[in-house]
Q: What sequence folds into this?
């Protein structure tokens, strides 16, 4: 478990992290999202002890990161694999040797049968068994990130830190990498911390997420809690503008924060109340395989009372839009 309490970090006069508190549970895929410059990478680097913090606390499994001596910090860092946007592979080494590199740094023999098996197993896991001898320049971006993932796992970490790991990849390749991260979490029971400015990443794999803005944590929760009914800061981050709704009749927004495939609500209501309405907005997206979002119904003035009564009697969150 990673427990961050009232964390404060400055570079000189610049406050980069301001009173951040959050808890990352074992085995979860946790997102940290926000605009460029919000402090996400710095937060990640504080977690693995690459940056010092001035105030507050970060405890990884009960150990205060800033209080560790060199040897203990080193041991902790071995528990945390890390992957980056630009992959950070060594261009002169082939796939096998790139994956083996952390073993060399840790003073382990990558040629021992056990270690060799580990390396080959990881390369197979990331789907690159046919590229053992390839150099990074012979690989696509997605393949390079797969090498980086295998390398990050070679010392059997319990935590995988990902800093914009898919930001340099196109959407289809991103999907593959995100599926791989989920598969790895499931198979190896890792804790995965995902720093990103991409909403898609958070929606697809994160079980909980923190939204950072200007060094501060604005909101924490399940992705659907943050993004189905976004607050002003998150709307601005997502680039959501006030949409023009029909000027006649009443506009009623229904939020679906659990699986909306039961969207029969709409047809059932139409039949039971014998009313007509139009669906003038639909903003539905996939969260880890569940469809959630909101719909706006435009209802005749004379039917609005009955429709609102019907909807308020359900568990759905209802709001009248202007
Ligand atoms: P993000 O990852 O969300 O884009 P960063 O954590 O990289 O944000 O940076 C947060 C702020 O800290 C930025 O204003 C950045 O310029 C500043 N910053 C990051 N690293 C350093 C550093 N080593 N020295 C001084 N300022 C830094
Ligand atoms: Mg960053």
A:
């Amino acid at each position: 478990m990673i427990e961050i309490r009232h964390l404060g970090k400055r570079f000189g006069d610049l406050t980069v992290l301001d009173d951040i508190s959050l808890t990352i549970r074992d085995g979860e895929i946790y997102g940290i999202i926000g605009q460029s410059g919000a402090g996400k990478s710095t937060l990640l680097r504080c977690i693995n002890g690459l940056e010092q913090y001035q105030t507050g606390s970060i405890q990884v499994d009960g150990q205060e990161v800033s209080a560790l001596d060199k040897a203990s910090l080193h041991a902790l860092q071995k528990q945390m694999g890390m992957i980056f946007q630009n992959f950070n592979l060594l261009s002169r080494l082939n796939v096998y040797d790139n994956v083996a590199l952390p073993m060399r740094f840790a003073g382990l023999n990558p040629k021992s049968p056990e270690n060799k098996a580990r390396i080959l197993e990881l390369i197979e896991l990331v789907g690159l068994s046919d590229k053992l001898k390839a150099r990074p320049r012979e690989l696509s971006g997605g393949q390079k990130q797969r090498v980086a993932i295998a390398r990050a796992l070679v010392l059997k970490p319990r935590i995988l830190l990902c800093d914009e790991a898919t930001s340099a990849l196109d959407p289809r390749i991103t999907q593959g990498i995100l599926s791989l991260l989920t598969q790895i979490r499931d198979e190896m029971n890792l804790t995965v911390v995902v720093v990103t400015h991409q909403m898609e990443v958070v929606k697809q794999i994160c079980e909980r997420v923190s939204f950072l803005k200007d060094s501060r944590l604005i909101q924490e929760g399940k992705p659907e809690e943050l993004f189905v009914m976004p607050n002003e800061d998150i709307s601005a981050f997502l680039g959501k503008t006030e949409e023009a709704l029909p000027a006649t009749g009443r506009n009623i927004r229904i939020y679906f924060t659990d699986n909306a495939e039961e969207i029969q609500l709409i047809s059932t209501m139409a039949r039971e109340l014998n009313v007509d309405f139009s669906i003038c907005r639909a903003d539905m997206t996939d969260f880890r395989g569940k469809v959630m979002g909101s719909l706006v119904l435009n209802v005749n003035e004379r039917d609005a009372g009955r429709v609102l009564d019907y909807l308020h009697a359900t568990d759905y969150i209802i709001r009248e839009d202007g």
